[in-house]
Design brief:
This protein is of the alpha/beta class. 48% of the residues lie in helices and 12% in strands. The protein has a domain at 32-136 and 221-362: Deoxyhypusine synthase (Deoxyhypusine Synthase), CATH 3.40.910.10. The strands form three sheets. It has a six-stranded parallel sheet with strand order 7-2-1-9-10-11, sandwiched between helices. Strands 3-5-4 form a three-stranded antiparallel sheet. The radius of gyration is 21 Å and the shape is globular.
Length: 370
């Protein structure tokens, strides 16, 4: 038999009212980006969700305003399918609106923006909301970070964990549980990082309060070391590390740079992440990180070269692909035990220090055998 003709025959079943999400993915998504989405679903469910795999998710683009936090992230967190998160600050800021009972609305992207401004309506493409939502969220946030537990230097994971505690309580009081993924991350002890903490309304609020003497400071060095410690612990515990990237940008790179941080900077012998899944609409030929392929990531030591068959890129809008992947995963995989990595950060950091010191002592070569 011709080896090039060994793939499954394209023989899609007709879609009817009994067609499930699993049927749609497995039996209808035959080719092109539909096939990549099928491969993404299979990679996520059949390999990345194994008990010994640590799953990191990155979020770029305005996803939470579109409801992705409550529709996808919260269910995945509650099923134990997400272990740590890297996000733009904007996604975290807009996540707060829903827990506060503030509303976002469907809109028309063709509406005149001068007319919207006159009516105090803010637009994110086809999402409309009242300008006062920003002011209300800012007031809530500024009051929150005035609390004693915020008056120190901390990682963004600790910062977001503290925010999650307040947001979870606000959800409870309003009867809105399940609206905020930050609250869900707090409840399930999932560390959440922001690679550019000053680049959002949250960072702007921290900066404003600093002018008044607030002592909150965000330690980006601790962020780099903690995320690196998470990945090293995953690899050194006879397990694997998986990355699931929605969009690209800074969150994607921050998730992936843990590989070269381990190998190139700390000189610890490793190979990179084991599973690579990205949903993006960015092209690879423009040279940006958002469109960079897993093959390119191999040259940076971000991805284990032996694991390239376990790398899938879907060239789709995240608001289309992510709900389908989420629905497929929940339908086809039982819940996992939460790893509660936030509670384990001190021990993982201590292990990282020990491995780094051992690498320095044992070799002067670029990569130490330890």
């Amino acid at each position: 038999m011709n080896k090039y003709l060994s793939g499954k025959k394209i023989n899609s079943r007709p879609i009817d009212r009994e067609t499930s999400i699993t049927d749609l993915v497995d039996l209808v998504f035959e080719a092109y980006n539909a096939a990549r989405l099928r491969e993404a679903c299979h990679l996520f469910v059949h390999k990345m969700l194994a008990d010994d795999v640590t799953v990191g998710v990155s979020l770029a683009g305005a996803l939470t305003p579109a409801g992705i936090g409550m529709s996808c992230l919260v269910p995945l967190i509650e099923h134990g399918f997400v272990d740590w998160i890297v996000s733009t600050g904007a996604n975290l800021y807009h996540d707060l609106h829903f827990a506060m009972g503030l509303s976002m609305h469907r809109g028309n992207p063709e509406v005149n923006d001068l007319a919207l401004r006159e009516e105090s309506v803010v637009r994110i493409y086809d999402i409309f909301f009242d300008y006062d939502i920003l002011l209300s969220t800012d007031r809530f946030f500024e009051e929150m970070i005035a609390a004693p537990e915020f008056q120190k230097e901390m990682s963004t994971a600790e910062f977001h964990h503290n925010i999650g505690k307040y947001v979870a309580e606000r959800e409870r009081l309003l009867g809105e549980k399940g609206k905020s993924f930050l609250a869900a991350a707090y409840r399930h002890k999932i560390p959440v990082y922001t690679p550019s903490p000053g680049d959002s309304s949250l960072g702007m609020g921290v900066a404003a309060k600093a002018l008044e003497g607030n002592r909150l400071r965000l330690d980006v060095c601790r962020d780099v070391n903690e995320t690196t410690a998470i990945v090293l612990a995953a690899k050194r515990s006879s397990g694997k590390s998986a990355v699931f990237m929605l969009g690209g940008g800074s969150p994607k790179n921050f998730l992936l740079q843990t590989g070269p941080q381990i190998q190139e900077v700390l000189h610890i012998k490793e190979k990179g992440h084991d599973y690579y899944l990205q949903v993006t609409d960015a092209r690879p030929d423009s040279g940006g990180s958002s469109g960079a392929t897993p093959e390119e990531a191999v040259s940076w030591r971000k991805v284990d070269p032996d694991r390239l068959p376990d790398a899938v890129v879907c060239y789709l809008d995240s608001t289309v692909a992510f709900p389908l992947i989420t629905a497929y995963a929940i339908a086809n995989h039982s819940p996992r035990q939460a790893k509660k990595l936030y509670e384990r950060l001190p021990e993982m950091m201590e292990d990282l220090r020990e491995k780094f010191e051992a690498a320095k002592k044992r070799s002067q070569h670029p990569v130490a055998e330890i």
